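Appendix B, record 7
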Amino acid sequence: ELARLEHASREINKQLQEAEADYLTGTERLAELHREVAACEEDVDRFHATKAAAQAEAEEADAAAQQALETGHAEVMKLRRRYDDLASDVSNLAQQRELLLTQMSEEKAEWEKLQRVGTAQFSPSLVACSNHSMAIIVVWIATLAH
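Structure tokens (predicted):
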């Protein structure tokens, strides 16, 4: 009976040692899993921080792009108004040029008529004044042409 009890005691002791070894292995494995979970949580935290930073950068880039678009649109509108003003100025100058050309042509015709009639009957100051006016008109038209 004593031999059987000793044998049973050794078996129980062996089972106890195996259970203790399994417990230690399980505890080590559990600690390892806790470390892995902690590392995963750190990875998730880094991911969230990176995601938040990327979203903030995207929002800043979007705001900058929107601002650039608005600035560009304002600049285009400003240039469009300037273009319209210049086009109007050019049109007005072209009309003035045509008017002056017409006046010059009429004055030239009148001048030629007067020359045919004879300049002897006109005073020299009238002839000089008319020549001076024609020269001013020619210079002004040449300036407009450039």
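Remarks on this record: The mean pLDDT is 88. DSSP finds two helices and no strands in the chain.
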